[in-house]
């Protein structure tokens, strides 16, 4: 990732921000939540801290118990002087956190009711499955907590001090998502709420790259807490892409933010956070960025390379599946969370239209299975007018050799990218799993994706789950597409590397499709190595046998991804937080072919 960046960049950054932010503005940013739930003021207890009935659409998964968990709100954190925060990351001793426990004992079942009610911060999953890896994982996750003025506001990307920090000492929005799920599942929603509110505040910054203003709604890729030792004062500093290698704004951050807001609402039953005017506005700003009209002829979202998890040049520019699936999910989550006021209604209409078109486009043009592959292989080219079958003028000679062996008899997937004369046939894990979770995929397509994972087990899971994409770019292709990137050599990092974080997505997708054994099997493989190897960021090699060349150790989302997968498999009712059923009011969509019907 951002290897060439200097560790000092944030102090420089701070200076450059202060040149265009008035003192008042800066104060607002740094002192914003002060904290609404912390001081027990009337306002906070009335509007923010009441437990309201969930308005979020109930999800009806088979065999899934899906009750919102009531929580104690407004737990005050201890008042602490800023001098206690000498660094941005203040690992808390476990005992401190135990005091802040909020998981209600009645939800833990019989096994737990015997436990004393105090000190209830023992993760539920630990009680249900006393596996040593779980306790190691929880301890590591807690060590990664980042505090801002005494409150936990996120988790650091990696706690690896052996290597240059680059920007792994920051809280990444996308990386925090699995951490947030783990905390929600464990009945600790406060940190998630803090994170949502802090990042919302960062969104309202005036963002500039060189002399260019970024769109109002852009959410940061990451942030960190800056401690001013002179004033003994803490402020937040964010990166919207202006420090990132390649200077790309993170398109995925805003989507993850909306999806997290829904997960929080669903898990706690607390609708008051999403209903806050600030949150409603935050959502509208994000939506405005991606729903605005332009020159597009497709409903998919056009992006630059490196604007998501794969944040380096990897040929994922155009219409990458990861962004399209997150976009779809975020639109569906937003339509559940937006209020039915005048502004909200207007957005709901725009969302509905876009979802309708996006669903059609994705299900038809991104979908590939044996039949579809055979059709492309036989495509005619240079067809003009609306009668064209080969609408994007794909030249059959551009089909890569590997795809013919990779495609199983049963199974299929959403390919990496569809744009004029360019189909990127690579498999991308995140986008496909998210397509299942959001019901962007039909039921048949979801089954087919899981079939493909099972049939291509060696390639996609191998000795460490899971390949971020398949296959790797090699030789000439690697030179042209990555620009000779030494970090993304074949079967390493983003280029066919194996990322343990992705296991939570596999777990959720396999539970949703009624095939949890797939994730169980993958998790057992991961368990043999993750702790021993100290939670690497990624693994290298065709089978994922080797700890990644430049992989950080103690990578938080590897830890959180594992914990979430384990907890979800132990208690599938957690699935409702991250999964949506097919929209029942959906108008029938015409299909180009029924090739995905198994
Ligand atoms: C790498 C990953 C990116 C992640 C970041 C922090 O850059 O590519 O997805 O957010 O590290 O872990």
UniProtKB/TrEMBL annotation:
GO terms for molecular function: endo-alpha-N-acetylgalactosaminidase activity; sucrose alpha-glucosidase activity. It comes from Clitoria ternatea (Butterfly pea). It catalyses: Hydrolysis of terminal non-reducing beta-D-fructofuranoside residues in beta-D-fructofuranosides. This is Alkaline/neutral invertase. Keywords: Carbohydrate metabolism, Glycosidase, Hydrolase. Invertase that cleaves sucrose into glucose and fructose. It comes from the Eukaryota. Belongs to the glycosyl hydrolase 100 family. GO terms for biological process: sucrose catabolic process. Its EC number is 3.2.1.26. The keyword Ribosomal protein does not apply. Pfam families: Glyco_hydro_100. The keyword 4Fe-4S does not apply.
